[in-house]
């Protein structure tokens, strides 16, 4: 059933990981399977059998050619450095080459207590597994770089997180699972050789165009390349109101993919200070802080590469600092590109940043829903007949009424027709997102009643985020006061 494994990470020195076979579970049952992704990866779907798949995706049987391992890494968690983290409950089976020739990791998350478990049980509750499945696939459908969900399996066992909950295992697919924290693990040990080998591995896997560079220029260029992807990624998060919740350095990939959907959520009422994570008590990873936390994380990456940049420490710091200081301008460029597209703007104008910021101010003042505001603007771009429905989204409409006049003046200098502009805007402004209350309803039904119908229905909706889906209008609506979810939780 599995495509052939192409083992790359397991060929690195053994201090990069700990060999580890998944711990078998009692009664594995396949509850979700991503057939389009499986086809993309080269799985033999003609031979697919649900019961057999449950055995593979639970880790009860290791696929032929796989060499399971737990990766080593460190990380800054909420600003505090932990020198030894690693995969405490995840097992990398290996890499496969997909139908487009891309190398993809296949990992089992919740596969047992590894040497990096730090006192944990190595397992995953069903709720967080389904949350990651839903949100990562929604993000992919919105065109945002992300790890993917291939399968979810219940284990027939209970996992205690305050109370006993059904256990589950997620099969996660990624361009790779290498993180800023992977570099930090070796830098903290003064292992410059390992840092160099890891950097060269990352260049080969993710940035082969840098392979022609030699010496310190390769590692400076690597920082620049990773920084460019992170700036673009976070700008796209901001464009859909996504709040990651745990932007630790061990959750920052060098590939530029979103990883670890723990206490993540999508903002409804626009407020730049929004925090959902139950463990983010100080608001470090609030919505508006995400761009600057990304820069902070990139600075930590640059620190690990200083010995490779220049033998003179002061010169190395100077050159790395120059790169990191370029991040705000890079991010602003990416963010403005995202926001211009959302507002139907194709030309650049010096007043565009202020135009976007004034819309955000009106949304904040008017307690407007982030997703519905931008979606309704698609109708307003087509005709002023859509203005009334937009204004109804605002508790205090004065700001949006004034803003609409400024926006229309700006649109008058654009070449597209109103109909063309509206079509373009509908391609980038989702109508459906995994709203927190809908996600929670789906998880509760699965956990408490073994009913996966709400999960399957929500997944079907959010993986077609830009299309109008007749009969599913209720999925566009924000939570009612009694349905609101103010806190989300990590599954560890």
């Amino acid at each position: 059933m599995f495509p052939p494994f192409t083992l790359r990470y397991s060929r690195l020195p053994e201090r990069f990981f700990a060999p580890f076979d998944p711990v078998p579970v009692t009664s594995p049952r396949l509850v979700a399977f991503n057939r389009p992704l499986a086809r993309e990866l080269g799985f033999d779907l003609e031979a697919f059998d649900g019961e057999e798949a449950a055995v593979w995706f639970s880790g009860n049987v290791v696929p032929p050619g796989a060499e399971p391992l737990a990766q080593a890494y460190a990380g800054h968690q909420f600003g505090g450095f932990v020198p030894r983290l690693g995969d405490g409950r995840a097992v990398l089976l290996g890499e496969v080459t997909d139908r487009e020739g891309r190398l993809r990791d296949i990992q089992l998350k919740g596969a047992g207590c590894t040497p990096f478990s730090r006192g944990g049980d190595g397992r995953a509750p069903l709720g967080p597994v389904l949350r990651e499945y839903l949100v990562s696939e929604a993000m992919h459908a919105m065109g945002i770089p992300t790890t993917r969900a291939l399968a979810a399996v219940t284990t027939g066992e209970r996992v205690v997180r305050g109370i006993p909950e059904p256990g589950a295992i997620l099969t996660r697919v990624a361009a790779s699972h290498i993180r800023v924290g992977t570099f930090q693990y070796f830098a903290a040990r003064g292992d410059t050789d390992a840092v160099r080998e890891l950097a060269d591995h990352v260049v080969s896997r993710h940035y082969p165009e840098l392979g022609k560079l030699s010496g310190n220029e390769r590692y400076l260029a690597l920082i620049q390349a990773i920084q460019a992807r992170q700036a673009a990624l976070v700008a796209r998060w901001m464009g859909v109101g996504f709040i990651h919740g745990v932007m630790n350095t061990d959750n920052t990939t060098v590939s530029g993919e979103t990883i670890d959907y723990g206490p993540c959520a999508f903002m409804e009422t626009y407020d730049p200070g929004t925090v959902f994570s139950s463990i983010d008590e100080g608001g470090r990873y609030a919505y508006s802080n995400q761009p600057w936390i990304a820069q902070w994380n990139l600075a930590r990456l640059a620190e690990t590469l200083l010995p490779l940049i220049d033998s003179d420490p002061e010169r190395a710091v100077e050159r790395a600092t120059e790169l990191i200081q370029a991040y705000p301008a890079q991010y602003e460029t990416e963010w403005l590109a995202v926001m211009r597209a959302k507002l139907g703007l194709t030309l650049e104008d010096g007043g565009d940043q202020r135009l976007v910021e004034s819309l955000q101010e009106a949304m904040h003042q008017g307690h407007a829903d982030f997703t519905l505001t931008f979606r309704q603007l698609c109708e307003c771009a087509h005709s002023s007949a859509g203005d009334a429905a937009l204004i109804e989204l605002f508790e205090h409409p004065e700001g949006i009424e004034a803003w609409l006049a400024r926006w229309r003046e700006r649109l008058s200098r654009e070449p597209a027709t109103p109909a063309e502009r509206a079509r373009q805007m509908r391609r980038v402004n989702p109508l459906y997102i995994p709203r927190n209350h809908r996600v929670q309803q789906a998880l509760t039904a699965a956990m408490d009643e073994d009913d996966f119908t709400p999960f399957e229905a929500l997944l079907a909706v959010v993986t077609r985020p830009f299309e109008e889906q007749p009969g599913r209008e209720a999925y566009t609506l924000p939570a009612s006061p009694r349905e609101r979810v103010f806190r989300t939780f990590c599954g560890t």
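The radius of gyration is 23 Å. The longest strand covers residues 148-161.
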